[in-house]
Amino acid sequence: MPYLLGSIRSQQEFRLLGYSRVSASTPSMRVKAVLMESEEIKTAFALPKKEFPLAVERNLIRRRLRGVFRELSNSRDLCGGLYLVMGRRSLINLTYNDMLGELRYLLERIYGSSTPERKI
């Protein structure tokens, strides 16, 4: 059974991400995570208007990142928890496969450096 994939909506979940010290970054994106023992995966994407002035660009990147997370959750490469992806300007130049590879790299770094923090 694939993991349940959803969006971060509550203020409590965003607060948990704010307190989390589990993160990894590359020149094009940064990922913060709160790993939990549940099978639910919740994501949020921070794509600032200053970095991506056109809504078309922000929406394109969001769609690609949602697809990448869906693919990773179906292949069981993703642990349950909360994930915040913060994009930088160079993210617009990456293809879907480049994003997938970069996100896999970031998740390997996150999983190698942390243990599940706490269960909500």
TrEMBL record:
RNaseP catalyzes the removal of the 5'-leader sequence from pre-tRNA to produce the mature 5'-terminus. It can also cleave other RNA substrates such as 4.5S RNA. The protein component plays an auxiliary but essential role in vivo by binding to the 5'-leader sequence and broadening the substrate specificity of the ribozyme. The keyword Cell membrane does not apply. One of its GO terms (cellular component) is ribonuclease P complex. Keywords: Endonuclease, Hydrolase, Nuclease, RNA-binding, tRNA processing. InterPro entries: Ribosomal_Su5_D2-typ_SF (IPR020568), Ribsml_uS5_D2-typ_fold_subgr (IPR014721), RNase_P (IPR000100), RNase_P_CS (IPR020539). The keyword Plastid does not apply. This is Ribonuclease P protein component. It comes from the Bacteria. SUPFAM superfamilies: Ribosomal protein S5 domain 2-like (SSF54211). It comes from Ferrithrix thermotolerans DSM 19514. GO terms for molecular function: 3'-tRNA processing endoribonuclease activity; ribonuclease P activity; tRNA binding.
